[in-house]
Amino acid sequence: MTRYAYFVDLSLCAGCEACTVACQALNGLDWNIRYTKVDRMVVGTYPNVKSSFVTTQCLHCDDPPCAAVCPTGATYKTADGPVKIDDENCIGCQYCMTACPYEARTYDAAADVVRKCSFCHDRLGAGERPACEQTCLTGARMVGDLDDPTDPIHQQISAPDVIHIEGTSFYYRLPEHLDRAALPADFKPSVATFAWQSIVQPVGQILMGSTVAALLLSLAVNAFRNRGKEGAQDGNG
């Protein structure tokens, strides 16, 4: 069984944003929409200043809250790890955007759907590499299979200086002058997501079921009454 993970070596990132542009080109995005973001981090005080770049995107959580709150099942986690969105089922409610702790989603008003990084899941299935990894000029990006012990990604993520963003599919190596605070936080389920899963959705389903039942009962009663009226009219005739 394949289980994808993503390793990013920020000590090699040059901030060129080739990954961002490749993603935009592949997904037909406008210049201001970025599924893959590259931010400059500056530390120190003049004249002892150093800068590095931190790249972020959807971290493809192990237990994605976006999928938990989606009322139609449009957002789902695949068996091999990536979290995807089915445009056909997305109703543009944007609940997933509120639930996402990494602000990794964007709303497409023209199509009335939410979009994000798909881990280039279709490309992986076709034996190709993700666009962002393929275009990285310094080799700072690597996608691999955690369930394959021979995959080169294991040589990277097993190093003591590599940080796993807990609860997600992402691993990072930092340059020496950046600390853990520069990276996305470990994933922790929010109270709001728990409330949605445990209270709002079940109650909503019950109420929706009651509403449908009441509607069907009303239709049946009206049909019965109409048949009674028709019978009475026939008898009078």
Automatic annotation (TrEMBL):
Keyword Ion transport listed: no
Membrane-spanning parts: none
Record bears the keyword Mitochondrion: no
Matches recorded under PROSITE patterns: 4FE4S_FER_1 (PS00198), 4FE4S_FER_2 (PS51379)
Origin superkingdom: Bacteria
Domain 4Fe-4S ferredoxin-type per the UniProt entry, residue ranges: 4-34, 49-80, 81-110
Alphabetical list of SUPFAM superfamilies matching this protein: 4Fe-4S ferredoxins
Keywords carried by this UniProt record: 4Fe-4S, Iron, Iron-sulfur, Metal-binding
UniProt-listed InterPro entries: 4Fe4S_Fe-S-bd, 4Fe4S_Fe_S_CS, ET_IronSulfur_Cluster-Binding
Name by which UniProt lists this protein: Molybdopterin oxidoreductase iron-sulfur binding subunit
Gene3D superfamilies assigned: 3.30.70.20
Xref: CDD domains: PsrB
PANTHER family: PROTEIN NRFC, PROTEIN NRFC HOMOLOG
Organism: Symbiobacterium thermophilum (strain DSM 24528 / JCM 14929 / IAM 14863 / T)
GO molecular function, one term: metal ion binding
